[in-house]
Specification:
Two copies of one chain form a homodimer.
Chain A (H helix, E strand, L loop, with lengths): L7 H13 L12 H8 L3 H13 L3 E4 L3 E4 L5 E7 L2 H6 L5 E11 L3 H7 L7 E10 L2 E10 L17 H8 L4 E10 L2 H7 L6 E11 L2 E10 L5 E4 L1
Antiparallel strand pairs in A: 1-2, 4-5, 5-6, 6-9, 7-8, 8-9
Chain A binds a DNA duplex (30 and 30 nucleotides) through helix 3.
DNA sequence: ATTGCTATTATGTCGCTACATAATAAGTCA
DNA sequence: TGACTTATTATGTAGCGACATAATAGCAAT
């Protein structure tokens, strides 16, 4: 009899329901953890865990002494999983192919330096490559690699190994920044991806850092129709 | 003396560093929580919290009895915060404007029904609107609203209130699906957004549900140059 | 050999206590 | 009155113990 147990998730769901049902409105103050624990007949640590989860999901705000409040400005928070391109293709049942297009040391444009947080202009290694699914262009990547922080890359034969896979295995990062946007395909991109010039491309741009030191910046131009899906 | 304390975050960082530095390779098994707790001189619950965080960030996998392993296929996980358009504009210091373009009951295309999980074809309420920043088109939204699950919407004057804001305040959702992609502007979109036909638009498509019952599907066509930024 | 029960192992969850920390309010002394 | 100290309040973090649960291994009966 009685209910089986009070898990922190059930507490979270209950509080969330209260908020979503409007029993607590944006800006309202929620009961203290201790009180809630008593009414729900559980320990405060259980409530605390539930509340922390709601903070992470962006529904509430908590301040010491100030208490817990429903966020005034709700935000929708979603999680994106970005897989390695090879796996993304293989796991969808298609055959993966990789092709190095060019590899050279070059002076990056200011925008690239800015995104990597580099102040003094310096040449970087640029590697362009194509990921193929069943032999057809799937993602074109334009990559800038910091030779200063990753000198080992110069000894790797990127003709066969994707820089991405090498870096993932050999150069861990502690932080990264993602930028998502749309761009028209220019002449050379269109040619390499076998699409029409002017087609709308979804671009995933990722800059990785290790301890604030830049490692690499990669722009992935995806085939028209590509979608990134996220769920709550 | 001795070190001050062992926080679960310090444990997490330590384990993460071990993995990133290659002391544990993909697929390797990590020590049991209990052992780790002993060597680090802390409680198992502290280790457990640290490990759970690493699971959430996609670095490791845990299975009861099976133990903790470094994920073989690393995934990059990022969190996106999607704010209400009005706030996004206001917080960037620009003036927000809203304009209803059209409002009518219509038969949605199959793709819309599919994304909302509706099997039997039925008319939905369609509301198109424009969000303006400093008087210029910023986001064009094309929205389908389930009148069956949200009949109250028909009594709201959407000429002045954005359907988005009304729904957020009055119709909570428990789950949503996000789709991000790029699309060429067609003639009418281009006209409404005051851009050129064929321009590459970044599209944010969101379907919200309450308890698996569909509420609304909205496609937000963003002004060229729009970027979505996520950080770890 | 196959099925079924039991033991083992490692993680998952929860309660309780204790102390830390941040924010604020109240009080105190010059 | 103003600056400093102290108390209060509510959340944050950690420890420890206990039991739950899932996955596996081992053993036993047929």
């Amino acid at each position: 009899m009685a209910e089986r147990k009070t898990t922190w998730k059930s507490v979270r769901d209950r509080v969330r329901d209260d908020i979503l049902a409007g029993r607590f409105k944006p800006g309202d103050r929620l009961p203290r953890d201790a009180d809630l624990a008593e009414t729900l007949n559980c320990a405060r640590s259980t409530v605390q865990r539930a509340m922390q989860d709601l903070v992470d999901s962006g529904l509430i705000e908590r301040r010491r002494k100030g208490g817990t409040h429903v966020r005034r400005e709700p935000i929708a928070r979603a999680t994106l999983d970005i897989r390695v391109t090879r796996l993304e293709i293989e796991q969808s049942g298609r055959e993966y192919g990789y092709q190095l297009i060019s590899l050279e040391e070059a002076a990056p444009p200011a925008s690239v330096l800015a995104k990597l947080g580099i102040t003094a202009p310096r040449p970087l290694l640029r590697a362009d490559a194509l990921h193929l699914a069943d032999g057809r262009p799937y993602i074109l990547e334009e990559r800038w690699i910091c030779t200063q922080t990753t000198p080992e890359i110069s000894q790797v034969d990127l003709t066969w190994i994707s820089a991405n896979e090498w870096l993932i295995k050999n150069k861990p990062y502690s932080r990264y920044e993602l930028r998502l946007y749309a761009q028209k395909a220019n002449a050379s991109t269109a040619r390499q991806m076998e699409i029409k010039r002017g087609d709308a491309l979804f671009v995933i741009e990722r800059a990785t850092f290790e301890d604030e030191r830049p490692i690499t910046l990669v722009k992935s131009f995806t085939q028209p129709g590509y979608q990134l899906v996220a769920t709550t």
